[in-house]
Each structure stands twice: as C-alpha cells, then as structure tokens.
C-alpha cells in the first residue's frame, strides 16, 4: 500500500478567491498586495530573478512547488529615488501579515547565535507543546541560514561569523510558518548587523515595519566586564547599546493617547547568561527551563522581568534598560544560547542552549497568539 | 572543660573551650550520638559571635570496618552542611535550615558542629497549633522547601522529627541532613517511610525537590490535624475544610513532575518570594525593583481604559446637599401676583 502525502494546500483562512493581505516591504516599507499571478524564480548561480506566471498551472503539485520557491517583485522597485530592484520571498506576502521580529544589538552581542539556537529549537518541535507546528516559510532562506550559522554553531561547535552590515541590504534571516488548528501565522526573524544599526544608515528603516523586537544585552558590555567598557568613574558606559538607541530614536509611538510608549511588544534578553551563572539572581532563572517543561506562567515572567531589571539596575547597566521604559509591553529574560564562551571560536564543552525560546513565547503571548491563561497580563 | 579543635566551613582550623551540657537520647542511627556543648565563657566563639552553645553530632566509639553507616551518615551531613553554608555565604544564613559550624573527621570520634536547633519537633505540637500558627507553619515550611530547591538539596527525610517549630518566633526549621542528597543524585537508600513518597515501579531513582514536596504535604496535614494521612492516597484528605485542600492540590500526585514547586506553594499562600527577604537585601537591588514597579504602574495607568468624566471629588463627611429647585415655585408665585394685581386693577377701574 502506498502512503499518500497530503498535498500542500492554500491557507484555509485565505482562499484564492480573496485578495492576499497587504504586506509592508521590509526593504522600502512600501505597502502592497501580491497580484496572485506573477512570481519570480531566483537563479542561485547568478542571483538574478526570472519572471514566470502560475496562472496557467493546473498541476497543483508543480504549482505549489513553484510558489514555495517563488519571489515577488516589490512594486516600488526603482519607482522612488534610491530604491533599486528588490524582491521578497513569496511566503512572506502569501499568508497573513507576518509577525516580523527584529533582533537588535551591537556587533557580536550574540544575536545570530541566539537566533540560530532558536531556529534549532523550533525545528526540534518545541512549539508543539504550545499547539503550534512549524515549518520553514522559505526553503532557500532556511537553507542559507542553516549553512551560514546553524551548521557552524550546532554541528561544528564553532562561533558564528558576525552578521554582514545592513548597508549591504536587509535580508530575511529565517522565517517559519506556525500553524495552530486552521490558523497559519508566518513569523519572520531579521538579524541586522549591529554596526549598521548603530550608524543610523538608511537601510535600517525596516525597523519601522517590525511587529516585535528582541533587544539583546551583552552582559560583558552592560556590566562593564570588558576592558575599556567603563568610564572614568568606573561605571559601565552611560551610552548603552548604540543599536538600542538608534531603534528607539527611529520608532514612532503607536497613537497619541499613549504617545509615551511604542505599541510593539518587546523583550530584553540578557544573553550569555551562563557567564553570570554564579550570580544567584541569574542562576535562579537560568535553571527554570519552562519551555522544556511545556509551561508558561505569566506570573513567573513578571517575576523574572522584575529580578533582571533590578539586577541590571544594581550593576549600573541602566542604559540597557531603556527599551523597558519605552515600550508599553516589555519583558526581560535570562538566556544562554551556548552554555559557555567559545575558546578561539570553538565551544570546547559543546553546546547547551538554555531558555532560548522563552523570549519568543513572551512575544507570542503579548501578541495574543499563545493559548494559555493569563497571557493578557504578560508585560503589563 | 575540654579544648575542641576543628575545621570551620571555610576549611580553617579553629579551637575553643567547651563543656558538655547534656547528651541527647537516641539518634539517627546506632553509634551516631548528639550532645549539646556550651562554649566556655571568656573564650571566643571561633565562628559565630554570640553563639554560646554548639550542637555536636559524633560517632561514638571506634567501630569495626564493617559498620560504616554512622561514618557515612556523618560524612553526608557535613557534605550537605558545607554545601548549604557556601550556597548562602553571600547573605545571612536562612533560619529555616540548620547551620553547620565546623567538623573534624580525622579523629577517633569524628564529629560535626551545628548552631543549636530552634524550637521543638513537630511531633510535639501537631494538632495543637492555632489557626495563625498553622499558617505560619505552612509558610515556614514552604520557604524551607524553596530554599532547599534553590540550593539543589533534597532532604529526603522530612518528617515530624526533622522539621521543628519555634513557638515564640513562629518559625520552622528543617534539620538533620544526614540522608540528604543533591538534586539529581540517587535517592538515599534508607528504606521506606510513611513520610516519604511511594516510589512507583520504573520511576527515575534520582532525587528531586518533588520528593520533599510530598513529605512536606504529609507533614502539613499532620501538623494541622494531628493525624497522619493515608500514605497511599493521592488526595490531601477527605472531609477537610478551609484552605488546606487548595494548598495541597497536586502535592501527593504519583508522578513527581505533577507536584507543585515550592514557588507555586508560596504563591498559593500569597506570600512574597523569599528571594527578596533573604538573598539580595542590597539597597541597589531593592531600588531597582521599586523602579520596575513604578514604571509598570505608569504603563498600566497609560493603557487603562478611560474613566467616565467626573466632577471634582467632594470631601468625605456629610453627603452632598441636594439643591432645591425653587425657580418654578417663585415663577408661579410671581404669575399669581401679577394676575391678582391685574384683576384688582380691572375691578377698581
């Protein structure tokens, strides 16, 4: 007996008869909808795009494969000054408007490493216990991310390379289609080179398009543990993370009634928390791996946020707490992506990621996408 | 009076002059004796200023090699005691746990020294606690469980003789760590006890804080009711009223993973996290928490739904006097007067 694999189908809540959703281009911020006809195929050798139509495709398997690998040309390409030809993966514009998550932090604070381990944990099915199944949204993007980061870190035990600067163009790091029941939600991660954010280049305007932010705090810098990171009074830098500052200066408040705060949910991740494992307050939270246990306790999220806020405050790292004061809903999390520091770019003791999905769950809770009691209290 | 030389918890050799105050009858095992020592006045207490007594646990007499259990129990009690002292060295040592002062094992009669225990054994007060004391007992025991879990220690023998109640301060103290293990180590092979959870066939043999949670639940039931519950039952106890069934919900679950944590128990008791009280009393940390609370309060106010517009608040006291509407009456009176004057004038004319 031959096992039959169900054919990929169009999202049930977005049938073909309805117009695809309006999506904001992450290159130029232009709002547009896909015309449901035209897609482009990318030549991996030359990097060029070739137009094709799916209107005449009657074989659903071929059609879906074409859609899965397809790209869409942003209608704003070359229209306005300073905009060149640019394309977006079709998966990005095909479903509901994606949950766009930006990872923010200066160079080498650990954003890519964090993202690589998050992607690995999602791929291991950790979201299943929260009712989600996940699959890569754009296969080519996922493959590239695996080759560049994931395999380096998790297969070879090596530190990943710094992310290219955003001046070379913002690109999707990786994206997943989370499915729960009949609902499908694309989640897209953007890992942006810290240098570019700190330099306030035009390419970082995509920040306006994000729906949630992960601010990554490097404890070495925040606590002034690296040489040159303390001022003449012996305190950590009063500037904080320049990438944080740039984002906070770039964003616009949600509406006039709450103009004091930004509307997107945000999380502050105390990364490399393994280096603080002998600090009781950090150790306490680092050992509570809720996602492994399939738990989500809003009260615990609140308590952890309060403790970590106080810990950073106690250590004069208040500039790194600026996002907490600026976003209406914001939580703090102790996270270790690797379990230890690399020695000459190699993790000698192997990798032990801890709590890397806690920030994502907090974001999903604050967006009302997590089906657990009390999520309306998270971050507020 | 004798000169007592020993190692303190930091490994430094110290000495003081002591006198045996009394020997305690019985003990956790044969040949493992306990006695109270009085530190001689005029000599410095080497470890803890102000402590005038020391509780000494010792292996009495020289035992044959085949009889190693007392030595093993004493070694283990020292190992766990050192672990706890080092765990809490950055702050005040928690009163909920007995405190190791020192030890010497390379002598004919190896011994460990502790700060004297507080209060009396639960077996002496069970069923006689007032409602307020019952709550204090539950909170104290939950705090002790939290401290043990935070320290990675599983006591493994919580019961009416190893959990004490201090009446005057309303405190609970967990003592006698000779069978304790670190979380994740194999459970102590001490044989079954009605105060320990039954081990299911095929269950992981590594110790977990959930083991102590089960025992603490049984002990809480005993302290409140004076009766020992059915050890095979997975429910708190039939016929109980008040908050106890809610507090012990899930505590006797067969699976350790299904039992609540000490933090959850504290939340059920609606008491603050012991972390704040015990472990980081630094003013800067507390100031950070206050700032967090202030910012959260501002956010909640900013995002709160708008209230109906109300007039200025009235001062408390007399209810506002209702203003009488006199204008209609005056108008009617004026109309009548005009009418009357008009009629009168017409009649005169």
General description of the model:
The complex is a heterodimer of chains A (380) and B (349). Chain A has helices at residues 60-69, 90-94, 111-123, 139-155, 194-199, 219-222, 242-250, 280-286, 298-314, 322-326, 358-366, and strands at residues 23-24, 31-32, 38-42, 49-53, 71-73, 87-89, 99-104, 133-136, 174-180, 183-191, 212-217, 262-270, 327-334. With 380 residues, chain A is α/β, with parallel strands linked by helices. Chain A has two domains: 23-94, no CATH class; 99-377, 3-Layer(aba) Sandwich (Rossmann fold), CATH 3.40.50. In chain A, helix 3 packs across helix 4 (139-155). The radius of gyration of chain A is 21 Å and the shape is globular. Chain B has 349 residues and is of the alpha+beta class. Chain B contains eight helices and eleven strands. At the A-B interface, helix 8 and helix 9 of A face helix 7 of B.
Helix content of chain B: 25-40%
Largest interface: A-B, 24 and 25 residues
CATH topology tier name of the largest domain in chain A = Rossmann fold
Mean pLDDT figure of chain B: 82
Strand content of chain A: 15-25%
Biggest β-sheet description of chain A: 7 strands, mixed
Output the structural class of chain B: alpha+beta
CATH class of the largest domain in chain B: Mainly Alpha
End-to-end CA span of chain A: 55 Å
Helix-and-strand structural type of chain A: alpha/beta
What is the terminal-to-terminal distance of chain B? 133 Å
Percent of residues in β-strands of chain B: 15-25%
Query: How many strand units of chain B?
Result: 11
Tally of separate helices of chain A: 11
Output the strand order for the largest sheet of chain A.
Answer: 8-9-10-7-11-12-13
The CATH topology annotation of the largest domain in chain B reads as: Transferase(Phosphotransferase), domain 1
- What is the H/E order of chain B? EEEEHEEEHEEEEHHHHHH
């Amino acid at each position: 007996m031959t096992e039959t694999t169900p054919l990929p189908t169009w999202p049930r809540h977005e049938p073909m008869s309805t117009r695809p959703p309006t999506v904001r281009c992450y290159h130029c911020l232009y709002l547009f909808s896909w015309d449901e006809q035209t897609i482009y195929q990318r030549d991996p050798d030359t990097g060029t795009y070739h137009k094709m139509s799916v209107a005449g495709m009657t074989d659903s398997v071929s059609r879906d494969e074409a859609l899965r690998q397809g790209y869409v040309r942003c209608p704003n390409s070359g229209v306005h000054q300073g905009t060149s030809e640019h394309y977006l993966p079709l998966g990005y514009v095909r479903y509901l408007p994606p949950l766009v998550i930006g990872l923010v932090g200066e160079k080498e604070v650990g954003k890519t490493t964090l993202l690589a381990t998050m992607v690995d944990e999602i791929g291991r099915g950790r979201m299943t216990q929260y009712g989600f199944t996940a699959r890569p949204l754009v296969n080519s993007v996922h493959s590239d991310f695996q080759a560049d980061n994931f395999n380096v870190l998790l297969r070879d035990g090596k530190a990943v390379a710094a992310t290219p600067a955003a001046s070379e163009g913002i690109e999707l790091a990786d994206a997943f289609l989370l499915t729960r029941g009949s609902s499908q939600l694309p989640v897209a991660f953007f890992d942006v080179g810290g240098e570019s954010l700190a330099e306030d280049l035009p390419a970082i305007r995509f920040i306006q398009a994000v729906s949630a932010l992960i601010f990554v705090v490097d404890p070495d810098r925040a606590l002034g543990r690296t040489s040159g990171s303390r001022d003449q009074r012996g305190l950590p830098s009063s500037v904080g993370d320049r990438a944080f500052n740039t984002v906070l200066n770039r964003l616009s408040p949600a509406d006039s009634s709450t103009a004091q705060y930004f509307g997107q949910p945000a999380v502050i991740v105390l990364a490399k928390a393994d280096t603080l494992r002998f600090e009781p307050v950090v150790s306490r939270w680092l050992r509570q791996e809720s996602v492994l246990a399939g738990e989500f306790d809003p009260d615990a999220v609140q308590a952890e946020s309060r403790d970590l806020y106080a810990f950073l405050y106690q250590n004069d790292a208040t500039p790194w707490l600026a996002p907490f004061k600026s976003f209406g809903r914001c939580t703090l999390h102790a996270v270790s992506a690797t379990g230890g520091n690399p020695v000459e770019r190699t993790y000698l003791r192997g990798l032990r990621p801890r709590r890397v999905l806690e920030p994502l769950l907090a974001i999903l809770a604050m967006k009302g996408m997590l089906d657990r009691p009390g999520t309306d209290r998270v971050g507020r | 009076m004798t000169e007592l030389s020993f190692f303190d918890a930091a490994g430094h050799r110290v000495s003081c002059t002591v006198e045996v105050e009394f020997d305690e009858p019985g003990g956790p095992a044969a040949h493992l004796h306990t006695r109270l020592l009085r530190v001689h006045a005029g000599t410095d207490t080497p470890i803890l200023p102000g402590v005038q007594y020391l509780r000494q646990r010792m292996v009495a007499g020289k035992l044959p090699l085949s009889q190693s259990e007392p030595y093993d129990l004493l070694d283990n009690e020292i190992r766990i005691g050192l672990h706890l002292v080092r765990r809490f060295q950055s702050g005040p040592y928690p009163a909920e746990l007995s405190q190791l002062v020192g030890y010497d094992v390379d002598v004919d009669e190896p011994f460990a020294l502790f700060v004297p225990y507080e209060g009396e054994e639960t077996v002496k007060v069970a069923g006689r606690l007032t409602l307020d004391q019952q709550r204090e007992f539950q909170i104290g025991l939950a705090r002790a469980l939290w401290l043990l879990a935070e320290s990675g220690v599983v006591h493994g023998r919580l019961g009416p003789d190893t959990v004490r109640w201090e009446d005057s301060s309303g405190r609970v103290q967990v003592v006698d760590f000779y069978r304790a293990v670190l979380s994740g180590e194999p459970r102590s092979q001490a044989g079954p006890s009605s105060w320990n959870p039954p081990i299911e066939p095929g269950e992981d043999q590594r110790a977990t804080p959930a083991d102590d949670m089960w025992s603490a639940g049984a002990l809480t039931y005993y302290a409140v009711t004076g009766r020992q519950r059915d050890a095979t039952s997975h429910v708190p106890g039939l016929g109980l009223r008040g908050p106890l069934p809610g507090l012990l919900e899930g505590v006797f679950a067969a699976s350790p993973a299904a039992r609540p944590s000490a933090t959850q128990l504290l939340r059920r008791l609606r008491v603050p996290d012991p972390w704040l009280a015990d472990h980081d009393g630094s003013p800067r940390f507390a100031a950070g928490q206050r700032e967090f609370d202030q910012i959260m309060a501002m956010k909640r106010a900013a995002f709160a739904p708008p209230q109906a517009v109300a007039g200025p608040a009235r001062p408390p006291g007399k209810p506002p006097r209702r203003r009488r509407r006199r204008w209609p009456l005056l108008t009617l009176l004026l109309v009548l007067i005009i009418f009357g004057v008009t009629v009168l004038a017409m009649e005169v004319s």
